[in-house]
Amino acid sequence: MKNFESFDEFLNEATKRTPDQVNKDSEKRIKEQITRYSELMKSNPERANFYKAQLDLAHARMTVLALKRKVDALRSK
Question: Which ranges of the chain have pLDDT less than 50?
Answer without folding.
Answer: none
